Amino acid sequence: MSKKTIIIVASIAVVVIAALVASLSLSFAPKSAQKEFQASQTYSMIDKATAIGVEHSNSIIVAPATAAWWKKLLPYTTEKDINALDFSTFSKNATYLVVTNSLGSSYQVQNRLGLETTFVIYATANDARMAGQVLPKTTSHFVQGNMLLLLPVGAYSDTDYSLNKIINSKIKISASDITLNQQAVWQIDFKSFNDVYTKGASANDIIVYKKTMAMLGITEDTQWFGHSKDGLNWTGQFINKNKPTISTPKQIIAYLDNQIAFLKTDGSYAYGNAANVPENQQTGIIKPHQSIATNYMIVSNNTETAGGIINNATAKIVGGKILPKADGILKVDVQPNEWLSFMLSENASSPYTNFTRASFTLKDTNGNSTINLSVIK
What we know:
Elements: E1 24-25, H1 32-38, H2 41-50, E2 59-64, H3 67-73, H4 80-83, E3 94-102, E4 115-122, H5 125-134, E5 141-144, E6 147-150, H6 157-160, E7 184-189, H7 190-197, H8 203-215, E8 223-228, E9 233-239, E10 245-246, H9 249-257, E11 261-264, E12 269-271, E13 282-287, E14 296-301, E15 305-311, E16 316-319, E17 330-334, H10 336-343, E18 355-362, E19 368-375
Antiparallel strand pairs: 1-10, 2-3, 2-7, 3-4, 4-6, 5-6, 7-8, 8-9, 9-19, 11-12, 11-13, 14-15, 14-17, 15-16, 17-18, 18-19
């Protein structure tokens, strides 16, 4: 079987971490900026609205409520109706813009990373109510307290959100509620991401996905928190209650390359290298499963690089380069939609995100890192 490559998302969507050496131990300590963010009234409202049971949003982005940031956050939603809105018509007294992905109580949709919700947070509940009145009647939305929720297709305010928990409608939200300095902040919760992304997947696919993430140092305790000036290039830090151990780039790619299913003569499937299935028990039928995901990822550290990404123009796989120590200790360059699709054994790439590439660079063993995204044109 030919060489392939893998992609790992930042979630985006979509986010990943690989390693410098096998069993490398990283210390991802909580960040004070995240604590301030989680203590804000804005975060409390959003979290209460989107948390279902013990599941919090897998992704929360908060930005200043400006026309410039409205455009910068549009790539984080796949809802075409939201892309068509003129923010200036409902921007009066808006304080923050928010984009979340969450589980949703009854929400059912394929090829999405959760219930995508765009919020506009206003200074007062009355400001939010007035904004809701000027939206086009065809725009699915709901107003609760200081929040205007722009709902994705298939979502309903009375079944998919926890709005019964909300909210003191007499509070005032000012621009000092969260220290942004004209930047956006992004929080990713990997436990919630895993639960949403693997919902409905086969037991075997979930095992492979979780094993891959564990090799990359991502556990259910992992979060990421960072900030951005332009909405595409982020600087932040991984946060983990426990110290994860991670594998080398070659080990990660080799593991995924081996995730192949061979149909046996008795009708059952065997996973792994062809040598593990005696020739007289093979039918010759092979399902690539997660092995095909390795066509869409490059993992590099200071001593080695593994994987590659298909050049669509030439149909050739382009490999990576060893990462200079001055640039960090690990880099993962991926194509999110392809990787997310093939990790769940889909037969074709699905439009999970609006991003064509995602690059993650781990700067040091404290979890300091960057995420760089490229929008599909």
